[in-house]
Every structure is written in C-alpha cells, then in structure tokens.
Amino acid sequence: MNRAAQGFLLFLVGGAVLRASLSQEYLRFVKPGLRPLLLAAAAVLMLTAAATIWPELRRHRDRAGAEPTDGDGHGHSHNKARVAWLLLLPLFALIALVPPPLGSYAADRTGTALQPPLAYANLPAKDPIQLTLLDYAGRAVYDHGRSLSGRRVEFSGFITFGSHGVPYLTRMILNCCAADAQPVKVALTGALPEQIRPDLWLDVVGRYDTRQSKDEVNGGPIPYLDVVSAHPVSPPADPYES
Amino acid sequence: MTATQTRGTSPPATRQEAAGRRGLGGVELFMLVLVVAVLARPWLAGLTGSARAQAWLTVFVAIVIQASPFVVLGSLLSAVIAVLVPASFFARALPRRPVLAVPVAGAAGVVLPGCECGSVPVAGALMARGVAPGAALAFLLASPAINPVVLVATSVAFPGRPGMVLARLAASLLAAVVMGWLWLRLGRAEWLRPRPRPELAGLSRWPALLAACRHDITQAGGFLVIGAAAAATLNVAMPPGWLHAVAAHPALSVLALAVLAVVLSICSEADAFVAASLTQFSLTARLAFLVVGPMVDAKLFTMQAGAFGRRFAVRFAPATFAVAVAVSIVVGWVAW
User: Fold this and answer.
1) Does A86 contact B274 at a Cβ distance shorter than 8 Å?
2) For the whole model, what pTM was predicted?
3) Torsion over CA of B136, B142, B146 and B148, rounded to 10 degrees?
4) What is the CATH number of domain A105-241?
5) Where are the domains of chain A?
6) What residues of chain A lie within 8 A of the CB of B27, using their CB?
C-alpha cells in the first residue's frame, strides 16, 4: 500500500469513526464514555490523512518535483505494509453492513452476570417507578424486594427464552465494548402480549414477584417480575446498561 | 531488509518509474476494492444475516472501534519517541545494567494510561531507541495492567476488596519483570525482527513524525483487525456452559479463566468487571484472568507478531502465559 492509499485509508477510517460517534451508532459497540476518545482518535486520523494526501496532491500537480519528501511510498516491496489493507474489513462492516447491537443470540449463550449492588438508592415516589432492568434484578435478588414491595416498576429490555420456554426480559451489560457484554435476565410472568419472539423489545410495568430461578448456563439467580402491562417498543439508542 | 537499505541510495527517478510500471498497488487498487465491496454488498449482507454472523460482526467491529483511540494514542506516542525523544534520554533514564533496567522499565508502565493495544507500538519504539529488549518487553507487559486507569477500574469492580487491586498490581509487575529477565537470559536477538525505521531516514522533524505515525497506525491497525477477527470467532464459537463445568475444580478453574482471558481479548480497562461477574470462580482464578488478559490475548498476539515478528510471538506468548499463570497462583496463595 503506497502513501497516498494509506492516506485515503486513514481518512476513511477516521471519517467512519467520526460518523459513528456523532450519530448514536457507536453505542451499539462501545460505552457512551468512550465518545470523547473516539472523537479525538478520529481527529488525529483525519489530520494524519490530510497531512499525507495534501503533499501527494501537490506533487501530482507539478510532476517535476517528483522526489517524495518522506518514505514508505510507491509500491516498493514493503511486505508489512500490506496488512494495512485489512483495515478495509471493519470499515466496510461498519459502513455497509451496520451490525445490530448484541441480542438474544449472545444472551442465550452466556449466564446472567447479576452482581450484588453497591448500594440501593432511594426510589422516587412516582408510580410506576422507572428503573433499569439491572437495578430491578439487583433489588429483587439481593435486597429480597424490600424496596419494591407494593410498588409498580417499569423498565425495558428484549425477549429471550429459557430452556423450558420461560420468557425472560434481558439487557446486555457493557463495561467497555460489546466484547465484554454480559446479560442480566428477569423472568416474566403475568400479563404478557400474545405474540412475543426473541429480540422483541418490550416496555413492561409490573410488580415484584418472590419467585426466583437459576440460569441454565451458569446457575446464576434470575428474579421474577409479575407483569401488569407490557407493550413493544423500539430499541433505545443505547441498547446496553452498565 | 536489503531492499529498504538500498532504497536510500537508489536514484529517486528510477524508483518513481518502477512504481509507475507496477501500476496497481496504491490508490487505484484502493478504489477498485471499494467499488467491488459496494457492488458485493447485497450478497455480503445476505451472507451475514444469521444471528451468529451478526453477533460476530458486532463483536469484531466493537473490538476495533474500542481499540482505535488506544492504537492512535500509542502510535502517536511511539512516533514521538522515535522522532522527538533523543536516544540518550533513555540511556540516562534507565539503569545501565539490563538486570536493573528491567524492573525500572516495568514499573515505568504506570505512566501510560491506556490498554494493551497502545503499548505494543510504544514498546517497539523503545527498542528502536536502544532500550534493552528485556526492559522494553517488561514495559510492554506491565503497562496495560498497572496503570492508574486500570487499577481504579479494578477497585470499582471489586468493591470492598482492595486486596484484588494490590494482588493485580503485584502479580502483573512480577510477571512482567520475570519475563524481562527471562528474555535477558534466554532471548535471542534474531527472534526479534529488526525494526529499522527506513521511512524516517533523512527526514526533517515534522515529516518524520507524520510518516512514523501513519506507519504505526496502519501497521498496528492491520494486525489489530486480524486479532479482532480471531477474538470474535472464539467468542462466538465458544460452547456455552463450559466455564460453569470447570468452575468448581481448583486447578482447572485457574487454567480455564486464563484461557478465557486469551479468548475474549477484553480491553484491560474493562476486564475487571467481567472478572467480578465470574462469581462461581475462586479469587485466584479471577486474578489469573486479570493478569493474563493484558499480557497475552488473541489480538495482542497478532499485534506482537506484526510489531516484532512471528518468530518472536510464537515463543513469547506461550512463555508469558505460563509465567503469568504461575505468578497468579503464587500471589493468590499468598494473598488469600
């Protein structure tokens, strides 16, 4: 890969990172906190690209001064440089194929990653209480639903099914990027819509249910929610919790 | 390397002509690839329609995106070291005797607040600047595990267990120093691909910085892509439940989590959270996960092979794995 091509490649990679982090698309892959770093990386990539391409263009214009001002140029046998072509793969995947956020496939393969929460924040007096799926699961399992008794709660997630056909509402929990995503699952009982299928996003309102089951994959605890009402929603911009 | 050495002396005009005759290889080929990719899009989209293929793609792209700021940062730093920091600085900063330089360089890893993708180009630049390979390697292994960002993340992930942070710090530093000393004793210079920087020869400061930066980003980025593909494949192909099966066995569980660290290739800034969630495993097993991950994993292996050569990587990675597991067991035994 010669210098000009490297310049174009860096420009496209930088542009793709910039586009993904300006739109909400980057949230499918990494946590929101990485955004400033991604923007900075995109800026460096595009500046490097511009500084590379600009002298190339000028040299192209007046062919007389053909001496390159720096190396790595013009098709000499530099084996290692070929590996740079591989950067086209994630670029293409990101721009053209736009993979969806992790969903039921990944969730089914991994056990629930529910952890004892550090603390239980006071819940607002609203009805229903809006909280995250992770928050609900933590309170239900490790606080035995004490803060939830008699209250209605509301959260969203996507549908997965346990081995006995039990419907779960699931969220993937992400710490840095999708490679470390792990699911937290809540079993649903009560008033569910007729037709639910894996990966359908639901917003549910329900009450704490004392039952608990074990995840088939790792034996982790799965709390229950007694659903009062549920309706399909479109996936949120940030599909993960953390 | 002879080709690149003679390059400097050959008249520029001939090179230019040769490149012209060779035709494709640059921008034209680049455009061709893009056009083919765009035309093949519907077919590729159909091919990647299954849930498994989509999970693969998401993990693959996620690893590359997540690593990109660190690759860029590491390449910038490596370019600065290669161009702006004089070699004499490192000669003064590090003890002259390699045996002492190794622990000093390992402890110096504290200053690079990033994850493992960034430390590979930096270690390469250090070697090119005359730092003893053993010391540069200790820095390479220690820095992603013991920098403040990672240690803070570890303490957040293991609330009420400051022992985990200390154990991680101690075990990572110890394993890195042991590997540096091992390299001094057993390592051979010919395993390392010599890393002259022909692209920098005879350049003034800013063009050299630009060339070094561009070179490192495209190099490290390309090898990162291979590693991300391998990690995504392992991630998707791993049978569910195998971890659970070995969790109860004291020895197997340590090995299993060490292997998992290699397979998952998680950024060292996030691995503590995953370790914290593996509650059915012993603390020692989880320590092994935290020590091995930043030193040996699927994407690091390809990046090391790219930066230092394949002959280096096939020896260095397994040795590091063994040392990291052994040190984790010892530290875990002392700590708990």
Assistant:
1) no
2) 0.84
3) 30
4) 2.40.50
5) 3-99, 105-241
6) 2, 4-5, 8
